[in-house]
Amino acid sequence: MKTSITVIAVELGVVLLGLVAAVLSWRNGIQTSTFAALGEAPEFVATRYVAPWLLLAAVLLAIAGLFAIDAVTRAVRVRRRR
Question: How far is C-alpha 59 from the geometric centre of its chain's CA atoms?
């Protein structure tokens, strides 16, 4: 039973790390550039989306979700055994 609890704790750690990594890669995937006003033209802010970073964020989020589902399933099974 201690092994199951250890596995659950490790999986929840992986979920947390996956979520943090997903947020960081998502933030790297959206880049903004600000162009100053020139004459009568107003200031302009351009947003650039970097697909590989956004794809990595989506994959990390999916993997973290799978680990979360597995951790909950293991926790329910351990609780039912008691």
Answer: 8
Burial class (CB in 10 A: 0-12, 13-18, 19+), 74: middle
Confidence of residue 35 (pLDDT cuts 50, 70, 90): very high
> Could you give the CA distance from residue 21 to residue 23 in angstroms, rounded to a whole number?
5
Residues 6+ away with beta carbon under 8 Å from 47: 30, 31, 32
Query: Model pTM?
Result: 0.83
Torsion angle defined by CA atoms of residues 62, 64, 67 and 69, in that order, rounded to the nearest 10 degrees: -70
CB 49 within 8 A of CB 30: yes
